[in-house]
């Protein structure tokens, strides 16, 4: 049985100043209810424009947006219940009062009136995001990660059906980010909220999303589950967004013993084993500390590769090593 859809676009186009290289072109997408769909693409590819179209913030030049199969009106024509059900969280904290407390900021998301209702809902939202203990603190004094929790609590206070997150974890440090991501996944599961996420962070995209939609120059070029797009990307563009990899020309690939039939070879860092066959022909150029592993940049005849090394502190810049490439991908120019 296919999943119930909550938002759909049929052939939507939005260009700015009539320039086809801006905005989005002829996009048809189906957003399943209660899942996390991530929109990915290089900078300027149209991700934010698509979010704005999906939330009724801007009007398509052509095509339609449907929410529960009903045409979604434009917000500027008057807010409706449909708009209240779709909330957007961006990173700029535009709607927040820096001098007011967390409690006041989150509570401001509710309609005025019934105090008991406000206390109950605000307490619930703050607990949900694990920030109840901070409720008296001024918003402006919080860390980036705490601010983001408050922003999401405010967005969730009215129990929207769709939560749109535009680069939500940008200002959040790594530990805090993992916790916040986990909490959002939990809320999605428990509440059945639909999340549409825009992010540049591959780790975030792969761990959070149920479905990835890849856009390039305003068009959808590939889509599928994180596992599918990571392990068998159709496009070099997708691989470069999602994977820590080295991209080689046919001539460079030949240095690695690979005969390329299609022109471009991509080798994932984790597909290179160190200490493999042959003599030690590769030189370590950089050792990047990554915590429980290192990333090495190695070079031979002006070909550079990224390699994962779990045997920490074994190599230094200038060390020599041999490698075995266990797997590689080939892309033709027409698919890049
Ligand atoms: N209001 C606007 N007026 C003019 N051009 C715009 C406007 N909004 C977006 N664009 C253009 O449309 C294209 C897509 O922009 P958009 O912000 O959607 O990209 P993005 O993928 O979200 O980029 P980023 O990852 O850098 O945030 C860009 O070329 C951008 O300059």
Automatic annotation (TrEMBL):
This is ABC transporter ATP-binding protein. It comes from Mucilaginibacter psychrotolerans. The keyword ATP-binding applies. Pfam families: ABC_tran. Keywords: ATP-binding, Nucleotide-binding, Transport. Residues 7-242 form the ABC transporter domain. InterPro entries: AAA+_ATPase (IPR003593), ABC_SmlMolc_Importer (IPR050093), ABC_transporter-like_ATP-bd (IPR003439), ABC_transporter-like_CS (IPR017871), P-loop_NTPase (IPR027417). The keyword Disulfide bond does not apply. GO terms for molecular function: ATP binding; ATP hydrolysis activity. SUPFAM superfamilies: P-loop containing nucleoside triphosphate hydrolases (SSF52540).
